[in-house]
Amino acid sequence: MKLEPSRGDEGRSFAPFAPDGESAFFHALNRGKRSAVVNAGDARRLAEQAHVVIENAPDRLDFGPADMPERLVWCSITGKGVGRGARAMDPSLQATMGLMELTGERDGPPLRVPVPLIDFMTGMYAAQSVLAALWRTERSGAGAHLDCALLDSAATLTSTVALFSLGGAFEPSRIGTESYLRVPSAVFAAADGEHVQVIALHEAHWRALCEALDRADWLDDSRFAGNDARLANRELVNERIAEVIASAPSDEWVERINRAGGMCERLRGLGDAWRDPLLGERGLVGKLDGGSFDYPLPVVSLARPDRLVPGPALGQHTDEVLAEL
Questions:
Q1: Which domain holds residue 261?
Q2: Same domain, yes or no, for 154 and 200?
Q3: CB neighbours of 309 closer than 8 A, spacing ≥ 6?
Q4: Does pTM surpass 0.85?
Q5: Mind giving me the DSSP string for 142-167?
Q6: C-beta pairs of 232-236 under 8 Å, 24+ apart in sequence
Q7: DSSP conformation class of 21
């Protein structure tokens, strides 16, 4: 149940738009929900009867978790924490939590990851927290006020890399497509102009790569003997691999390296990736009821719906919702 102000969720005006002029963005994020436009009193009564309330606008409400029944699970999603009064959003936290300083080529400027990683991760954290709280409520009758901040998610995303800085090892910086810990772990241009990603997470991957590239001599080269040696000779390793990869088309390398037991994938554009039949088989893409084009459909394993209902019209279910009070 989605309670909206009379002007509606801002997402209703976000591109891209479906052929009928409705926001495809809104439909994708609100499919299967009900929409109600209610006054403050009715909003409070609805909250009092709910199992879970999720809100991201605490300053706009004249009631809060302290006014609710003890069993209620109330989840606040904010920028930097309940009561902080500090605004934040995905791009701003990418900037302030170091993610942009880590993203890009060594000699290039900081870059923003162009997908809302922090937004999505906060939503997943909130869902996990709500489920855990409901489990506790079922056992003890005690509800919870959950404080889920975008800041927490941003910190988590950079936490493993932050270990190097906090532990005094080195200050991580931009490294392009590569890894701080493993060599090779990079992108190379193939003969057909496409790019492939090659990763050797384990020594077995490195041996498989040498076999697939017909470079068994690298296995006896002390400069490549073990990941530590390859880290010390990163530029040389990447240079040698790049020379071989440039000699054949990308699909050939993907087939040869993976058949040998290594790790190699061809880089794909977004449209190419989302038209992969596997996504349809997994229920990750499909048409909404009455729709004419495919939508991305992120799902939870136990919540795959039988019908793909579009997002609701503004206030579409107001009467229905109020009748349930």
A1: 185-189+195-266
A2: no
A3: 31, 32, 288, 289
A4: yes
A5: --EEEEEEHHHHHHHHTHHHHHHHHT
A6: 233/183, 234/178, 234/183
A7: S
The two three-digit tokens of residue 308, written as one number: 């793909």
| Cβ atoms 206, 229 nearer than 8 A | no
Flag whether pLDDT at 174 surpasses 90. Answer: yes
Residue 58, in any domain of the structure: yes
The tokens describing 313, both together, are: 């019209």
Same domain as 113, residue 204 = no
**Position 85 pLDDT exceeds 90:** no
What is the rounded average pLDDT for all residues in the chain? Answer: 94
Residue 85 counted as domain residue: yes
Is residue 288 a part of any domain in this protein? no
Residue (of 39, 32, 80, 33) closest to 56 by Cα position: 80
Beta bridge partners of 2: 35
Same domain, 101 and 59: yes
Does position 301 have pLDDT exceeding 70, yes or no?
Answer: no
**Cα Dmax for the chain:** 77
Give how many domains the chain has, as a whole number: 2
Give the containing element (helix H, strand E) for 286.
strand 285-287
277 falls within a domain: no
> Please, is 308 exposed, middle or buried when counting C-beta atoms within 10 Å of its C-beta (0-12, 13-18, 19+)?
middle
pLDDT digits (tens, 9 = 90+) for 264-280: 999 999 999 999 999 98
Cα dist from 134 to 42, 139, 184, 297, 300, whole Å: 24, 9, 45, 25, 17
CATH number of domain containing 17: 3.40.50.10540
For residue 298, the SS3 value is coil
